[in-house]
Amino acid sequence: MLNYLNFGLGGTPGVENNPEKSISSAFNLYNFAQNYNSALTRYSTDFFVPFMHSLFYFNSAEQKRMFSSSPAEWSRSLTDILLMNAQVFTRAVTGNLQAVGNYGQMELGSVLQAIFNTMFQMDGEDLKGYIERTAKTLDMVANVYPQAILDAEPKYGFHFERGINPLVAETERFLLYQVMPTDPKVKVRKKGKPVMIIPPYVLGANILAFQPESNKSYAHSFANKGIPTYIRIMKNIHENEAVQVMTAEDDVIDTKMFCSTIKKIHGKQVTLNGYCQGGFCALCNILTGKLDGLVDALITCVSPMDGTRSKGLAKFLNDLPGRYNDLDYGTKLLPSGNYVADGKLMGWVYKLKSIEAESPISVFYRDLMMFGVQKSKKMKISPSAAAINYWLSFERTDLPLSITDMSFNSYNVPITKGGTLPVEIFGKKLNLKRINEKNIKWLICYGEHDDLVEKEAALAPMDFIDVEVTAFPKGHVAIATSWSNPDTEYGLHKRYADGSRGPVRFQLEIDNEQ
Predict the structure, then answer these.
(1) What is the pTM of this model?
(2) Residue 436 in contact with residue 466, Cβ under 8 Å?
(3) How do 295-301 and 270-275 pair as beta strands?
(4) In this predicted model, what pLDDT tens digit does every residue of 342-401 receive, in sequence order?
(5) 280 to each of 1, 50, 201, 465, how far by Cα in Å?
(6) What are the backbone dihedrals phi and psi of residue 86, each rounded to the nearest 5 degrees, phi first?
(7) Are strands 174-179 and 195-198 parallel, antiparallel or unpaired?
């Protein structure tokens, strides 16, 4: 680009020199370089900080196991992990080259046209204009967009501190809130069938109240139809030791208490509604039998029911040498003396499995293209994009090891041919066939282009029992973001062209049937 600056800005025969243009363009190029370095450094830091944490955990775990394996076994495992790292690095480089190439292909026509317009004094964007616009694009990525992500927080999530959604019950580990309608015209039906939402542990609850003021909220999609809607919120793990040492049994006990409380209020059994990992936990809770008489319906959205069928994460875990496919390599010690699973590291593992698209350079150029494609002096930032990035940047939390172990097992051990999950709670095996035996209605919702919880992982129970299924376009969070808007084609309260129904419609029609 520095070479292009000579065209029409003081060095092209037959073209009037313009010192003012040269100075302006030089200033824009300087800003371009500064913002480029600043943005790329920030993207790299976001990626490599978890990497440094992983090295610390790796060294700690290896010190514990130093004398538990033979030198030959240790050497073989280390060689395998180095080869795997080389493959990940190769995939990252390939993704980087593709991202840079895509950006270059998008901009090539504009660059050539700007040079042509400058050399021959044609109408349209000249080289000075192109440099100015590109510098502004870099400023958007480096400075404006990060601030917009921070500014998205007040309109994102539940904000229970505002007192709009009342606290109904509490245990040492969880809080139970009622989600109130955002539509002032809607009144909660006291005798309506209630639903209790179980959020994912690692990604938090606020994604399920994405942008309530903009009518984009999974939880409020239920509440705004008058459905008695509740959500279970895990307490801060760093401030509550009971959360740090929580077991799967504790999860069941607290869920039972909350369901009993809700049933007493409304006089009807509860629908458990789990999103992502929360769906798998909800299923396990039901299969223990402890919720009999309290829960008669289940909704799971983009939930990994058999993680071994995942084409992405399960393959990544299978590629790991057996020695390193262990939770010891992702745990950290808290000041209390308790070990927990590092939530940020788990999020980083998801990036590794899709490294072609999630490396710092790939993400940087993806964001650069998001603004560059606008080709306008007034570039706009999507509030939804800012909120999504706020969620990805600030919503991950650490997890109790026992709960993490449930998900870990589901991604390493398949459901048996008889329908038994790779999880035991209260010393009891959990079998899917209990769902049909207890006549529990179950709706499974999945994303057709979900690359985090693929269709095969979400629909695994269909091989063993009868369940209702609804497919949604787009990916992992679309049900909680795009389709939670009731005015969209796949509004959650609708029945769709193929006869399937959204989770809100499912809940309303069950209530009518009862």
Answers:
(1) 0.88
(2) yes
(3) parallel
(4) 988 888 887 888 888 889 999 999 999 988 888 766 788 888 889 988 888 888 889 999
(5) 52, 26, 11, 16
(6) -65, -40
(7) unpaired
Which amino acid does the sequence have at 403?
A: I
Cα distance between the two ends of the chain:
69
Segments making up each domain of the chain, as ranges? 3-151+344-386, 160-327+398-513
Q: Token pair 């409380």 is at which residue? A: 261
d(CA 277, CA 410): 11
Band of the pLDDT at 62, cuts 50, 70, 90? confident
Q: Could you give the C-alpha distances from 231 to 95, 203, 220, 226, 482, in angstroms and in order?
A: 39, 15, 11, 15, 20
| CATH class belonging to 160-327+398-513 | alpha beta
500 within 8 A of 469, measured Cβ to Cβ: yes
Residue 383 C-alpha from the chain's centroid: 17
Q: What is the dihedral of CA 373, 374, 376, 381, to 10 degrees?
A: -130
Amino acid, single-letter form, for residue 1: M
8 A C-beta contact, residue 373 and residue 137: no
Q: What amino acid is encoded at 292 in this protein?
A: D
Question: In this predicted model, what pLDDT tens digit does every residue of 108-157 receive, in sequence order?
Answer: 988 898 888 888 888 888 888 888 888 888 899 999 999 999 999 999 99
Q: How far apart are CA 162 and CA 148, in angstroms?
A: 22
Collapsing DSSP to helix, strand or coil, 470 comes out as strand
In the block, which residue shows the tokens 């809700």?
Answer: 262
Please tell me the number of Cα atoms within 13 Å of 9 on its side-chain side.
21
CA-CA distance, 170 to 305, in Å (whole number)? Answer: 28
Per DSSP, the residues of 303-355 read --S-GGG-SSHHHHHHHS-GGG-SGGGGEEE-TTS-EEE-HHHHHHHHHHHTH
- Percentages of the chain per state (helix, strand, coil), in multiples of 5: 50, 15, 35
What is the DSSP annotation of 201-242? TTT-SGGGGSBGGGTB-HHHHHHTTT--EEEEEEPPTTT-HH
Compare 70 and 391 and report the one with higher pLDDT. 391
Contact 254, 171 (CB under 8 A): yes
Give the other-Cβ count within 10 Å of 246's Cβ.
Answer: 26
